[in-house]
Amino acid sequence: MTAVAKSNRLSRHFSTAHQYLQTLASSFRNPNLLAEDLLSKVLDEDPGIKTLEKVHSKVISDQNLCSNPSLAIKLMRAYSACGQPNVTRHIFDEIAELNIVFFNVMIRSYVNNHLYREALLVYQNLHNYNISPDHYTFPCVLKACSGSGNLRVGFQFHAVVVKKGLDSNLYVGNGLVAMYGKCDIIADARKVLDEMPKRDVVSWNSMVAGYARNGRFNDALDVCKIMLSSGFKPDAGTMASLLPAVTNTSSDDVVFVKYMFENYGRECLVSWNVMIAVYVNNSMPAQAVELYSQMQACGIEPDAITLSSLLPACGDLSALLLGRRIHEYVERNRLRPNLLLENALVDMYAKCGCLSDAREVFDGMEIRDVVSWTSMISAYGMSGQGHNAVKLFSELKDSGLNPDSIAFVSILSACSHAGLLDEGRFCFKIMTKEYRIVPRIEHFACMVDLLGRAGKLNEAYSFVLSMPMEPNERIWGALLSACRIHSNMDIGLVAADHLFQLAPEQGGYYVLLSNIYAKAARWEDVTTIRSIMKVRGIKKMPGVSNVEVNNRVYNFLAGDQSHPQSKEIYEELDVLVGKMKEAGYAPETDSALHDLEEEDKGIHLTVHSEKLAIAFAIISTKPLTPIRITKNLRVCGDCHVAAKLISKITGREIMVRDTNRFHHIQNGLCSCGDYW
DNA sequence: TTAGGGTTAG
User: Fold this and answer.
1) CB–CB of A72/A58 below 8 Å?
2) Which nucleotide's C1' is closest to A238 (Cα)?
3) Closest CA to B8 C1' — which residue?
4) Are strands A627-631 and A654-657 parallel, antiparallel or unpaired?
5) What residue numbers bound the domain in which A576 lies?
6) Angstrom distance, A138 CA to B1 C1'
7) Given CA atoms A312, A318, A320, A321 in this order, what sign does their dihedral have?
8) pLDDT digit string (tens) for A306-363?
9) What distance in Å separates the CA atoms of residue A665 and residue A673, rounded to the nearest whole number?
10) Residue A301: which region, alpha, beta or left (left: phi > 0; alpha: psi -120 to 50)?
């Protein structure tokens, strides 16, 4: 009986690695059972590190097994799969008679563990043993080149491959296409592909990936079409390859990926994951959530990648109930620890305004990276808890991790929202001096916002003028916004002038300027701006408020009457306004003054989208249930006052997330301290 | 043996 046949026979009797191990002891007593077969089988079954170590010690303790090359190779592979390439190396170094297979396994172990330099050094060592690399060696070392950005060595390998006549090998050709694609030498990748005598789906997908990572969606698409006409069926890998080209892209591109998904991918989890990611990366969170429910209806179980992709959509939509369900699923299916997934959970809770839940996940993490810290810092920042953000930022610095550029955007923004002028200035200083991070325009925008909100308008303006790059819309926007808060006409006009050049179609800036004029009682100028807007056909983006009630997200526009319970909603609002007036509420009836970021001028303030969403939540949920609103524009001053009063009248906690931040409103007070 | 799917700011 051959070894394979014996092994197959054994595998019918012993279905798990655990059973093999249990039988192992008896195998030494029973000469009819070969220890080699048993150990070999255990190693083939993806053993965990503990099982692996047991097998390893058995091998070491037996003279015959110790010199068995097949077991040695399997041990090397298994350690690599457990993320322990150093142990793989240790075994490799002990082998008496090395051959190309040992070298290939060693190189692959390093590459799979991202140790590209080490992999290339092992390749160099081949010459000392007079061993020639083969068609298994090159795909691996080519990957080491692209992984380490070592294009020069990549070119050398290509020359060696041609010299050895290995360029006609499918795997080597695929390796070359992938290497050139990842090193952004797309023309060379294409040349290799075109000259390959034989191609498979991996060849095509590697080319698609090359174009996609260079943002060339149309070329990637053309390759898909050639692939189809050559008789190859795109698969989940094709979709996954396309993904980098389909972020913030046109709706046509999204439609095409959807077509691929519908026709070639509905069977495979990876395709669902890609399609969800495409929706999320193109600001289509509702479609991502919808697709996820279809996926569940099809009986396809999500994995950690599905959920990490979907959680940002929950955050965007403030879909807390779905977010919580996902969290429960993660716990139930033991998907933790998983750094990316846990980071996504922290962020989801933060975006849903659940700071304590976010902190609980953060505190429970075994390993945290700079993304984890940044998510938590910005969670505090968004909620106006600047001091907590500063405290956590200081802990991040002490943790041994280095805050990166994004972490600094978060902390600067947190300082700005909380009016922490000195702390913000300090952070900007250490970013450049201590961490040697070159400030990007985002950092400057945060500083302008910080200085401007705090009333240091001249300093903010000087800061803008001293910037090493051309100020953009965000910079002037932050300055104009600050000028409105502090009624600074001179600087406000300068900022507005730039904004009308940079973004002439953005209605919001015209409104901000008209607010400044109105506050200065320059009514003629207010009228002029209104007429300019009318003549140019400039409209404000309509305000939309979302509220999650009974597992569904409802949208409201200003003056919305489309909801089936519209009559009850307006009746409730009337009752509330009555009570609010008793409590001293006076609507800001002067349109120019309250016209911050709000909806259509023709509609009365009481029917702003936030108010409708609040009234709907009140009649649809049990008393004292917290209300969570998400708005696509900044909350207007009148709605802020109204929400505070409603929280006092109804005893409800009201959380409003607008484009900038959170307002946690309770018992008549807001977490922003009216600083926003 | 080869490709390919995930998290953070503004």
Assistant:
1) no
2) B4
3) A371
4) parallel
5) 544-670
6) 9
7) negative
8) 999 999 999 998 889 999 999 999 999 999 999 999 999 999 999 998 999 999 999 9
9) 10
10) beta
Question: A535 phi and psi, to 5 degrees?
Answer: -60, -45
**Distance from CA(A274) to C1'(B9), angstroms, rounded:** 24
Task: Give A662: exposed, middle or buried? Use CB within 10 Å, 0-12, 13-18, 19+.
Answer: buried
The answer to whether residue A85 sits within a structural domain is no
Q: Cα(A570)–Cα(A317) distance, rounded to whole angstroms?
A: 24
Q: Residue A105 CA to B6 C1' — how many Å?
A: 28
Residue closest to B4 C1′ by Cα: A237
Asked if residue A461 is part of any domain, the answer here is no
User: Per residue in A59-95, pLDDT tens?
Assistant: 888 877 877 888 899 999 999 999 899 999 999 999 9
Q: Write out which nucleotides of chain B lie closer than 7 A to a protein Cβ.
A: 1-10
Task: Tell me the C-alpha distance between A619 and A557, whole Å.
Answer: 18
The residues with which A641 forms a beta bridge, in sequence order, are none
Task: Evaluate whether residue A638 is within a structural domain.
Answer: yes
**For residue range A162-204, what is the model confidence (pLDDT) as tens digits?**
999 999 999 999 999 999 999 999 999 999 999 999 999 999 9
Spacing of C-alpha A457 from chain mean position = 35
Number of domains comprising chain A: 1
Q: Which of A344, A281, A278, A274 lies closest to A307 in space, CA to CA?
A: A344
The whole-number Å distance from A572's CA to B5's C1' is 47
- The share of chain A scoring above pLDDT 90, in percent, equals 66
Amino acid A127 CA to nucleotide B3 C1' distance, rounded Å? 29
Task: Find which nucleotide's C1' atom is closest to A340's CA.
Answer: B7
Q: Give Dmax over CA atoms of chain A in angstroms.
A: 104
Nearest protein residue to B2's C1' (by CA)? Answer: A171
- For residue A572, is it within any domain? yes
